[in-house]
Write a structure and sequence with these properties.
This protein has 339 residues and is α/β, with parallel strands linked by helices. The protein is 35% helix and 19% strand. It has eleven helices and 14 strands. The strands form three sheets. The protein has an eight-stranded parallel beta barrel, surrounded by six helices. Strands 2-3-1-4 form a four-stranded antiparallel beta sheet, with helices on one face. A two-stranded antiparallel ribbon has the order 5-6. It binds phosphoenolpyruvate and manganese (II) ion. Phosphoenolpyruvate binds at residues 102, 128, 132, 184-186, 207, 237, 272.
Amino acid sequence: MIIQLKEGISEVQKSSLIEEVNQIGYKVTEVKTQLGDYLIGIGKKDFDIRKIGHKEGIKDIHIVSDEYKLVSKKWKAKPTTIDLGDGVYIKDGDMAIIAGPCSIESEEQIRKVIGHLHANGIRMMRGGVFKPRTSPYAFRGMGIDGLKLWYNIAKEAGIKIVTEVMQVSQIDDMYPYTDIYQVGARNTQNFNLLDELGKVDKAVMIKRGISGTIEELLQSAEYVFSGGNEKLILCERGIRTYEKASRNTLDLNAVPILKAKSHLPVIVDPSHGIGIREYVPQMALAGVMAGADGIIYETHEIPEKAYSDGQQTLDFSQSALLADWIRKTFAMRKTFDLL
Ligand code: PEP
Ligand code: MN
């Protein structure tokens, strides 16, 4: 059960509500986010919400039987909009394009990528400064100094920054320079990190775990929401299966399923999803048709020279073409949606 509390509810009213819910045999957790205060009641008994729905201080009340609750569409039917400021949004009914290198490498590289994004009307740039690498000897990122450098150049160009946070201690350092914290596939179930990102008033994009189910992804999102942060985005980036012909298996089934189960926006990452440069555009467009609210992909001036993930990275002319096709495909999908 979820109870959204009215603004200005008195402590006495709240205590009496909690007591009443406890009496039904439900355990209550209080959740405070940037946008609202909630009581989450967990219990098994069938219960008629009309019994308490009239009580003072209640704005809304619903029974949500899913394991995830606040991120469920059963709680909030209206899709969540992520407003990054300066007219940049990630939202249902729109097509966000996030492009950039796997890793931030140098000032020159940042400037070149930003020039490319600017020329193609792309307002969000991805890039890692803290890189999770399978080998400890691989390039592990420019760190916080790289992020500061990137931020100064991006801000001037009106471009928003999407970058991975790997551990709790990085959250505060990154805060002034980050628009969307990315939780990588290796950290989807790092519950300490998710809890701490719940305390931040900035958007968080959670990637699906390498072997994670759709349900587990939604429960990871629930951690951040119940920690206090409603600004959430889900990302399908491929899962590990028995198939070895591609880096991962991009599970596009997840897109309409996530959209049906949750009010959060869903982004598709075809670069990590298939891991093979020449097939990234097809999978990106398939993601658009599957119902994604945005696409995130890797681009670099000279992919062969990229410090990481060059094999799945588009050069600027491929990226320009793809951005154009993402928009055209999205326009086509919108006519489909009308059917
Ligand atoms: C990335 O976006 O560069 C990345 C490491 O992604 P993932 O966590 O999906 O592997
Ligand atoms: Mn990468």
